[in-house]
Write a structure and sequence with these properties.
With about 110 residues, the protein is mainly α. The chain is about 55% helix and about 0% strand. The chain contains 5 helices and no strands.
Length: about 110
């Protein structure tokens, strides 16, 4: 798994879109406290990672949960932001949307 986290770009240097270092660190606190999701170390790397990434992992690892948490955090903390998530099937898109809706309900919005 050594190459797993090296593929994620530094969240502080996002080209033209600068992300504050504290925002990258804050996302883990946000998903724990606001969304009720306690990510493991590898999931935290994805949450703190850059704007784009590929996650190559086992089934039931939490891909939908982590990407939904990341998308909800972005929408909640960056006004007018747009998040695109691409999946190879409608089933996977549906799972992502179910997770995102669940997290939004937890925010009370």
């Amino acid at each position: 798994m050594e190459t797993f986290h090296k593929n994620f770009r530094d969240p502080v240097s996002e080209g033209d879109h600068k992300v504050e270092a504290e925002d990258a660190a804050d996302i883990v606190s946000f998903v724990r406290e606001q969304l009720g999701f306690d990510p493991d170390e590898k999931q935290q790397l994805v949450l703190r990672g850059g704007r784009r990434g590929i996650v190559n992992c086992t089934r039931q690892w939490g891909k939908s949960t982590v990407t939904a948490a990341k998308a909800v955090h972005r929408a909640y903390s960056v006004a007018g932001s747009l998040t695109l998530v691409l999946t190879p099937s409608a089933r996977q898109s549906g799972e992502f949307l179910r997770k995102a809706e669940e997290f939004v309900r937890k925010l009370g919005n």
